[in-house]
Design goal:
It is a single chain. Helix content is 29%, strand content 29%. It is α+β, with helices and mostly antiparallel strands. The C terminus is likely disordered.
Length: 134
């Protein structure tokens, strides 16, 4: 299977990202892909802040994965940043092929280059196949 290009999301990617979020047991009950207005507003705010990265995995023009990386300021460790990785989603047809782990590694590398000292990755117990292989 071809390796998708990992890149910063654009506003054009928002419908696909929302669809990925809605295509799992958690998102199916709380995401509303038919009303994109709140997602586009949130994306504009997120994209304007350099401490946030909405990453997409682009497979020849199709978004097949996404995650959000947020760099959070704090006073601990002389003002070091904490990196939070969340909302990792992979298209159903690509699950199990290591794409999620590849995206997380990319986010960890991005965070490390920004002087982050701690990583927080949110995981919900009822999300299947979300573990990262080492």
């Amino acid at each position: 299977m071809p390796v998708p290009v990992l890149r910063r999301a654009t506003a054009r990617d928002v419908p696909a990202v929302v669809a990925l979020r809605a295509d799992d047991p958690l998102g199916a009950t709380r995401e509303t892909p038919e009303d994109l207005a709140p997602y586009l507003a949130a994306f504009a705010e997120l994209d304007a802040d350099p401490r946030h990265l909405l990453l997409v995995a682009d497979d020849d023009g199709t978004v097949v994965g996404t995650l959000q990386l947020s760099l959070l300021p704090g006073l601990a460790r002389r003002g070091a940043l904490r990196a939070r990785i969340e909302a990792v989603r992979v298209a159903a047809g690509r699950r199990g092929d290591g794409l999620g782990a590849t995206m997380v590694r990319y986010a960890v590398d991005e965070a490390a280059s920004s002087r982050s000292w701690r990583f927080v990755c949110r995981r919900f117990a009822d999300v299947k196949n979300a573990s990262m292989k080492h």
